[in-house]
Design a protein that fits this description.
Layout: E1 7-12, E2 19-28, E3 35-43, E4 56-57, E5 60-71, E6 78-79, E7 82-89, E8 106-110, E9 113-119, E10 130-139, E11 142-143, E12 147-152, E13 164-173, H1 186-196, E14 200-205, H2 224-233, E15 237-243, H3 253-256, H4 258-268, E16 278-283, E17 296-304, E18 307-315, E19 345-346, E20 351-352, E21 371-372, E22 375-379, H5 381-395, E23 402-403, H6 412-422, E24 437-446, H7 447-450, E25 472-474, H8 475-486, E26 490-495, H9 514-524, E27 531-535, H10 547-570, E28 579-586, H11 605-612, E29 615-619, E30 622-626, E31 630-634, H12 640-643, E32 650-657, H13 662-681, H14 696-715, E33 724-726, E34 729-732, E35 735-738
Parallel strand pairs: 14-15, 15-16, 21-29, 26-27, 27-28
Antiparallel strand pairs: 1-2, 2-7, 2-9, 3-5, 3-10, 4-5, 5-7, 6-7, 8-9, 10-11, 10-12, 13-22, 13-24, 14-17, 16-23, 17-18, 18-22, 19-20, 24-25, 24-32, 26-30, 28-29, 28-33, 30-31, 31-32, 34-35
Helix pairs in contact: 8-9, 9-10
Amino acid sequence: MKKPGPSIWLEPLKTPEGVAASFVVRVAGIPLGKKLTLDFFDVEPPGKKRDEKRNQKNGDVQLGSVAGRVAHAPLATKLSGIPTFTFVPENPAPPAPQIEDAVEFRFVGSDERFQFAIPNEALDADEGDFWDLQVRARAPKIVSNVATIAHVRQSLVATFPYRWHDGNDLHLYHDAAEDKDGKRGAFADLLKAIDQAEMFIFVVDWSFQPFTKLDLTAGLDGTIGAALMKRADAGVTVAIHTWNHTTYFASDAQNDDADDWFKDLAKELKLGGVPPKLLWHASSPDRMSLSHHQKFVVVDQPAKNNKKRFRAFFGGLDLTKGRLDWGEHPTSAHDKRVTARQTDWGTKKRQTNEWYNGETGDDKKLPREPWHDIYGWVDGPVAWDFVREFVVRWAADLPTQLGHKLQASADPVCEVWKTVRDAKSWVQALDPYDGPWTAQLLRSNTQQRCAVAAQFSPGDAKPLKDALPSGSEASILEMYRQAIDHAEQSIYIENQYVIGSGNQWGRDTIANDIPERIVKKIVSKQGQPFHVYLVMPMFPEGDPVSVGGLDVRNYEWRTIQYMAQTLQKKLKAPWTDYLTLLFLADWHTVQNENWKTKEWSKKDRNERLEAHQRYMVYVHSKFMIVDDRFALLGSANLNERSLAGNRDTEIACALWPGRNQEKTCIGELRKFRKELFVEHFGKPAADADYDDPASDKCRKACQKAADANYLAFRALNADPKGNACRLPVSVVGGEAKIGKPVDVAKVSPATPEPLDFIPDSDGKDDLWRWTCRGARFPTGSAPE
């Protein structure tokens, strides 16, 4: 195998206070002792007026050069089988400035490691959203690729294992499918990518069910298990790592006994047994009450520019029952569009279907629970990080796993990594990409879970066991904080939970401060065009009055109450001018008026659900857009167990425009958000549009549509326009309550239960109230 050419890359270091970026130079493919020169360039932002007095080269500014030699590095590792060294300057002192306002490079020596530190004060105030530094290494007859680091407003400082990467392609989906059959959309594209894979398919999930159909028009061939099994039978390494639900007393037969389901599926497909290339195991984090909550699929894909590449699918969707949904989100068991989900398939022993409702036990007479989720795929350097994450997780698994046992040497998954990282026929992580997006992989994870992976180090500059700061990583939380703090015009969030800032309402153990950050950002923007849209479920999935359900509902209400009350107190204008709280639902007009009578009010919840066939659309997304220029998508909920870093394992990807790609990326992200607005609020009226979510025109149009939907949902007197309903929260006398902004007179007394009761509830006690007065707060047992 031909050795790769000379390379230089920058290993990020923990950034000292007052320093914008710091890094160590690593060198490969250049002989030990060879003279080496580092040239530094300031990459100017597009549209900036250049100072003609400054030295320029190729349109950018050369800041200076540093001469030195290639030397041994104490922590050197191997990349692609080639010794890796560091650069040591000849004179460990700042180079002489070559231009008037040159950046100062500080050399800090420690065990022959020299740190380049770029002070914050070197950054120009008018550099825009990013400031780039490019480094090129020169030796006699050798010129390396250009390496880029940046002080990017959207990126996290480089203290986490995964740094940002330029050059990525992105595609987003606003549900699992574009139609009722799953022939187009996220799941259809995932099946296509699986079918095109030639070397590997890596699957990570919270719940993986082999008999889940991604294409409802097909038989067993439409299941995820069949798609994976056929590729494994063709010689592709297929590895599936899911959460072991048995450790949390949350039975999931297909997920926890997938080996048996795969055996039956192989018989049905007449394959003569489960292919040896299909590997499956399930495991749990180190604490019983926690889960592996990551969900992504990464596969190899056909060549682009004569080299194969990776594609990573990620977001909120699990490969489990009930997730295949589309923008209309119908609930009714009588709707012809959903009857396919009432059909059983599979063997007599392993029968399943796509009908799902977490509260009613999948009773097919009662409403279906539609599933709204955001999903996406990325090609480019960040896809390498998804692959590495799978290898790390696979190799770091605990001994109490189900299924495939990790092999101490030559484990198939680790062998795949070694092959692809060395292959000339693959686009490598250091190779140039031409996608418009910059991306950074983020996690919630603990050092303990990754310690075992050191023996399977995928060739990075340091062992994996040393890759996590302070024992745990909470980079998803850090990115949420940073993105909210930097928001200028709008924030749009869809999330399964909204629980945080417990120190503001008496629950200090709920330490994530995302709600408080949102409140502070809104207050700082009062008097300016700014708006936050927050979309969540009507109530947590499952029984709304179960012990855990009550506590979670209470945590959410306390969070919402804190946000509304604080904004009402600190803003001069109504708080709803800056914050819109929404849930999604589906319903249809009920012609029979008898349900409004006193006799009907005696019916139980299931009888009401069967008669009305109205139900919430379950918001399972974990998604945020800021200013139509930044997106954050992954598996993490806005609650403590997802964001703390030492609880559930989570993954997310942050995305923003690459250099000179603002027009392209902002256009793509705005188009996607507007599609979501049409799905949720219906098409805008002639005098409104969704172009600017911060404008009064857009905000009022959305709130008007959501208020009308809520009234129609309560009274069943009109069909929906979109599926968004405004959560009827008002602040009266400084206290947030359920009541307004909708007109109560238009709902009551036609509706038998009071306005603050969950529709179709029994309406008999406080357990069914939106505000959840019967919860056992603050001593509840529900996970936070």
